[in-house]
Amino acid sequence: MSHYKTTLPDEAATQALGKQLARVLQPGMSIFLHGDLGAGKTCLTRALIHAAGYSGHVKSPTYTLAEPYQVTLQSKPASIMHFDLYRMGSPEEFLDAGFREEFRADQLCIVEWPEKAEGVLPEPDIELFLCIAAHGREVELRALSDKGFACLASLQFAPVL
């Protein structure tokens, strides 16, 4: 499957999607999260990181730009690097910070506001779009690599509507 779209009626459904994604993602992948402020990007990421086994506080890296987490993906120890690029002024800041080196085979990278580093980010495996709708959130996932296609094909998610 290369494309998945649904409605998330509430925060619990957004969290449920994050939990299901944690079951199908693997190290070496990158996910780009698109959406306006308050669309649920951090909520989804927080649920994903907790479902992958991290028990501590998952904060939004709005001011630090990146936060690392030690988790388990596909039954193996792994790392997740959560980026929030909202406050970045230019793509060069991403390079200057050395963030491109974080996109490695042993780490899952989740990037909020990827458009802030357009042109310097590696291509994502999955793009996820969240949009505030009349009754919750609209979510769309697009696979852009073989790993992304495999993940979406394995995704078993049906929100409670």
UniProtKB/TrEMBL annotation:
The keyword Endoplasmic reticulum does not apply. It comes from the Bacteria. Its main location: cytoplasm. It is found in: Cytoplasm. Keywords: ATP-binding, Cytoplasm, Magnesium, Metal-binding, Nucleotide-binding, tRNA processing. InterPro entries: P-loop_NTPase, T6A_TsaE. The keyword tRNA processing applies. Belongs to the TsaE family. NCBIfam families: T6A_YjeE. This is tRNA threonylcarbamoyladenosine biosynthesis protein TsaE.
